[in-house]
């Protein structure tokens, strides 16, 4: 509601992408709490699971699909981060925006998160599904971790190496096929973030001096909010998931890292929207208005005058377009 009603007119279609992301994060937060997902790694294996208690209404097989859905949501988040940077660059570079983010192509920014979600889920279902070999390998660690036999656990996971009776260690090919696809999805997400983030910074540096103060301030606010909103998942999600995959690949035990991963991923949906609320002026003022109403506070005369001035500026002129200004200057 805040994004829909209080977004500056200059944000244009970007408000739809922000609303999509906000709804996604709300859904993730609502799903995460009752799902009670746990992640653990031991030796050369990782496992993501939930405990099937006696009073649960789900069968073990249905519970496994709860874990699968959780991983699919995580996969979608990889593409959502990238979509924001792609659109932001298209909004300040008209030639790129016309080719890749205008018209029906704007819908691709919503399609790729869904595509990554199904792709991540397919990898998990095909390569990381529960099997007797993983049951035996993780039986002891599961019993120590949650005090439950493996039969009471619904999980997905795999181990990266196999050891035969003679002690010969070989690659577990299905695990590596699956994890390589996940690395590709994580890598493309990070690549888009840093690549288009750098291009946004360079383009803004060239154009901010050519536009009005109102458009200038809005572009800077959106960019700074986007940078912080991307640093948050990089710290809370990309880095932990890299540790979670990399340590079993190197046959390292990571009990501490596993606990850290659970905390950071749980925090992400609650923390990620904060930069937009605190940096973008219209959202910040709307939140302050709510607190003023709750505590029966009044705006000062200077705040009323500033709000009136900003409303007048926002209602003047078309959406910011650097190419128009550059043509006029030429």
UniProtKB/TrEMBL annotation:
Species source reads Caenorhabditis brenneri (Nematode worm)
Tell me, what is one Gene Ontology molecular-function annotation carried by this entry? G protein-coupled olfactory receptor activity
* Lineage, uppermost ranks: Eukaryota, Metazoa, Ecdysozoa, Nematoda, Chromadorea
Q: Which gene encodes it?
A: Cbn-str-190
Report TM segments: 12-31, 65-87, 108-128, 182-202, 222-246, 252-271
**Keyword annotations for this protein?**
Membrane, Transmembrane, Transmembrane helix
Q: Which GO terms describe its biological process?
A: olfactory behavior
- One Gene Ontology term, aspect cellular component: plasma membrane
- Report the SUPFAM superfamilies cross-referenced here: Family A G protein-coupled receptor-like
Q: What is this protein called?
A: CBN-STR-190 protein
The record's InterPro entries line, in alphabetical order, gives: 7TM_GPCR_serpentine_rcpt_Str (IPR019428)
Task: Output the superkingdom of the source species.
Answer: Eukaryota
């Amino acid at each position: 509601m805040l994004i829909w009603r209080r977004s500056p007119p200059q944000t244009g279609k970007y408000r739809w992408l922000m609303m999509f992301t906000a709804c996604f994060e709300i859904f993730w937060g609502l799903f995460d709490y009752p799902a009670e997902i746990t992640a653990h790694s031991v030796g050369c294996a990782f496992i993501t699971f939930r405990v099937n208690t006696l009073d649960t209404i789900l069968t073990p097989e249905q519970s496994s699909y709860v874990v699968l859905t959780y991983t699919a949501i995580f996969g979608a988040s990889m593409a959502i981060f990238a979509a924001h940077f792609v659109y932001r660059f298209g909004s300040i570079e008209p030639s790129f925006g016309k080719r890749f983010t205008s018209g029906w192509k704007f819908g691709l920014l919503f399609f790729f998160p869904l595509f990554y979600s199904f792709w991540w889920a397919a990898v998990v279902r095909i390569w990381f599904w529960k099997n007797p070999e993983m049951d035996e390998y993780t039986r002891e660690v599961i019993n120590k971790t949650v005090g439950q036999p493996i039969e009471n656990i619904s999980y997905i996971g795999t181990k990266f190496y196999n050891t035969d009776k003679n002690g010969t260690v070989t690659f577990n090919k299905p695990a590596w096929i699956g994890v390589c696809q996940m690395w590709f999805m994580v890598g493309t997400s990070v690549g888009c973030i840093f690549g288009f983030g750098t291009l946004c910074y360079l383009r803004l540096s060239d154009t901010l001096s050519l536009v009005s103060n109102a458009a200038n301030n809005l572009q800077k606010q959106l960019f700074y909010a986007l940078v912080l909103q991307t640093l948050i998942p990089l710290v809370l999600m990309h880095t932990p998931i890299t540790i979670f995959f990399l340590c079993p690949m190197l046959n390292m035990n990571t009990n501490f890292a596993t606990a850290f991963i659970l905390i950071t991923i749980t925090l992400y949906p609650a923390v990620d929207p904060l930069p937009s609320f605190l940096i973008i002026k219209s959202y910040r003022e709307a939140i302050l208005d709510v607190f003023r109403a709750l505590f029966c506070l009044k705006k000062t005369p200077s705040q009323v005058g500033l709000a009136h001035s900003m409303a007048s500026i926002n209602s003047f002129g078309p959406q910011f377009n650097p190419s128009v200004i550059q043509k006029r200057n030429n």
